[in-house]
Amino acid sequence: MAKDVAVIGVGQTYFVRGYEGSIRELAFEAFREAAQDAGITQKNIGASIFCSAPEYDKQRSPAGVLAEYLGLIPQPTFYIETVCSSSSSGVKVAYSMIKAGLHDVVAVVGFQKMSEITSAESQERMGRGADIQWEAPFGTMMPAYYALYAQAYMAKNGLTLDDLMKVRVKAATYGQINERAVYRKGVKPEDFDPNNPEAKMAGPVASPLRVGDCCANADGASCVILANAEKAKAFSKKPVWIMGIGAASEAVNMAARPDFAKGLSVGYGAAAEAYKMAGVTAKDIKVAEVHDCFTIAEIMAYEGLGFAKPGDGKALIQAKETYKEGRIPVNVDGGLLSKGHPIGATGGSQIRTIVLQLRGEAGPMQVKDPDIGLVHNVGGVGLYGNVTIFGR
Amino acid sequence: MGFEKFGRRSFTAMTKTAKFVDLLAEGKVEGSACKKCGAKFFPPRADCAACFSKEMDWYDVPKKGTLETFTTAQYAPFGFEADPPYTMGVVNFGEGPKLFARLAKDIKIEDIKIGMDVTVRPLKYEDGQISFEIIKA
Ligand SMILES: [Zn+2]
């Protein structure tokens, strides 16, 4: 395993509705935790990268403002954006800068304050994260886009609404034990009962997806601090090494998508590249974080990552193989569904979970002694995909 | 006519493919085809990424296709609040570019099935906006 670039510090705020502070204060919380985790101060950091999806707050060019507030000037800073996968894209850039020898230590801060606008406005922003010229004029939104995949996938592969419900129940199982999750309640099968008007998860959103199939909006920030081998060994008792990084993109317009029943092509493409670079296969992964913005997305991710054969993702959730005690634990921190999805912060939060797992510091969520972990972070409707593999 | 006329609500004022809206007003749903290499595009493009040509012709989208997938939205984003429920879907013509649009309001939601035969027609809204929609073949 190449030991060139390591994660030496991770931080994450509580994911909440209506954070009582501004974006700079939100970002500071995650950065402070990561810096203290790494045992370093700002003077050890050579550059910073800030990541979010634009237009949720009013700040243009947030990198400079946040870098100042975090005490990271006069070092270079800039902004990276790939919507929901922004902060894993930021980590890829940080890795590249360190590997190129430009900097020894780089901080990647993802943040999002979604609660400054209404849910309908948020859907409009996300819809405009797709094709504004040709698709947004039809009134598109994220649940509807993923529902197009769900409808075709379910028809072809025999996946049922019951299987999707099981993904949500799993997420809630771990949201309950993750004190940083926005959704801390349990979810039971009867919460999806379509004949019970009181059932909190059953309401239709975009067929076939229901309220319970959709992730929770949240405010939050994450921070990942990366270092070269020399600094990692100097600062960190438990560096977690980046073994492989893969990334891919796909046509934005649904009219150019090859096969809705197969799932997101970026999942397959990014995974293949990351496995190749890491020199491992799906069988070597002991714990994973996948981009479950919707329940269907987790099933499609199982297949893109090779945890299940194409079309067979349902078998994993039916057999509880992706629970903490299963063959390949997935999203045992509650995932986007229960932990929450503060867009720009999500990738960094997923990475934090895997780093804590590999260090054996994941508390009640700890999987038994994992040595290799994987993060799958998707931007937009499979517009961007990043897969990052970590080893200890 | 500018592109602000396109769709339920347009987010783009100008594009070199704005003639698409004039063609819709004439009753035609057309994509663009590269004069140099023949590549076909829907939605239309002004530039060919396959051969770098900017010489484009218009072509009629096929008359017959099948519904590859669909969803009925019960909620709408900001600016579309008056519309739900509405169904959006993707038409597969067997070859060439697919097409994304809403399904006509007069199709009963319970009648919509993957694989159903469909075609496409222009649509004019009461407020003057111009679009196209998927209908039963
Ligand atoms: Zn051409």
And the CATH topology of one domain in chain A?
A: Peroxisomal Thiolase, Chain A, domain 1
- Low-confidence regions of chain A: none
Q: For the largest sheet of chain A, list the strands in their spatial order.
A: 3-2-4-7-1-8-11-10-9
Largest sheet of chain A: 9 strands, mixed
Q: In one word, what is the shape of chain A?
A: globular
Main sheet of chain B?
Answer: 5 strands, mixed, barrel
**H-E string of chain B:** HEEEEEEEE
Mean pLDDT of chain A: 97
Number of DSSP E strands of chain B: 8
Which key features would you list for this structure?
heterodimer, A: 392 residues, alpha/beta, Peroxisomal Thiolase, Chain A, domain 1, nine-stranded mixed sheet, two-stranded antiparallel ribbon, 12 helices, 34% helix, globular, B: 137 residues, mainly beta, five-stranded mixed barrel, three-stranded antiparallel sheet, 1 helix, 8 strands, 5% helix, 35% strand, binds zinc ion
Characterization of this structure:
The complex is a heterodimer of chains A (392) and B (137). Chain A is of the alpha/beta class. Chain A has a domain at 5-117 and 217-235: Thiolase/Chalcone synthase (Peroxisomal Thiolase, Chain A, domain 1), CATH 3.40.47.10. In chain A, 34% of the residues lie in helices and 18% in strands. Chain A has twelve helices and eleven strands. Chain A has helices at residues 23-38, 62-70, 86-99, 119-127, 142-157, 161-175, 229-235, 265-278, 295-304, 313-318, 335-338, 346-359; strands spanning 5-12, 47-51, 77-80, 105-113, 204-206, 209-210, 219-228, 240-249, 287-289, 372-379, 384-391. A nine-stranded mixed sheet of chain A has the order 3-2-4-7-1-8-11-10-9, sandwiched between helices. In chain A, strand 5 and strand 6 (209-210) form a beta hairpin. In chain A, helix 8 (265-278) crosses helix 9 (295-304). The model of chain A has no long low-confidence stretch (mean pLDDT 97). Chain B has one domain (3-136). Chain B has a five-stranded mixed β-barrel. In chain B, strands 2-1-3 form a three-stranded antiparallel sheet. With 137 residues, chain B is mainly β. Chain B contains one helix and eight strands; from the N terminus they run H-E-E-E-E-E-E-E-E. The A-B interface holds A 118, 120-121, 123-124, 126-128, 132-141, 143-144, 147-152, 155, 203-209, 253-257, 260-261 and B 3, 6-12, 15, 42-43, 68-81, 83, 86, 88-90, 97-102, 114, 131. Zinc ion is lined by residues 34, 36-37, 39, 48, 50-51, 53 of chain B.
